[in-house]
Amino acid sequence: MPTDCPGLADLIARLDRSVEAGDAAAITKAVKADLEEVLGTGALKLPAQFTVARPEAYARRLLYRDPAGRYSAIVMTWGPGQGTAVHDHGGLWCVEGVVDGEIAVTQYLVEPEADGYFCVTPIGALLAGTGSAGCLIPPTDHHVLANARPARASVTLHVYGGDLDDCTVFLPATPDGRYAATMKSLSFNV
Fold first, then answer.
1. Which of 20, 102, 127, 148 is the 20 to 30 Å CA partner of 156?
2. In the chain, what's the furthest Cα-to-Cα distance?
């Protein structure tokens, strides 16, 4: 845990309470309120090394891991034009908040087909700005995130119901627009 991060101790105390809220729906609702309050007021001041974009892909940096394994908090920094493929969250609930900038979020319905491919259909889109947050609970947790700023980085904070070590990514695979699923191992950047 970084020692030079004003507001982090308060966020951890809030999250420690919120993850005791009950089922995934109650937990994500409470965590969402925590992120909206902390990020919306600017109370969390991330160290500079957490907000530096990488030229080749978005950056993923561990901010905090609960010692009891109940949740982890990951900061992601998105350079201009950077985003994800359609993906899930490895069976974990997730709450994502915008620390700084704008993130385009597109939600997807992912349906398996008999031949092993997937039909991937967009079902909603929104533009999330600084201080906003959203919840994802499997199995309805498929989406794409992308930096909506054309010339500046955006920074997000993701709280997962455990350690997100891998996820399923869905990539276009057939001429008729169907997708193939592949497991993606996730790691942290410096």
1. 20
2. 52
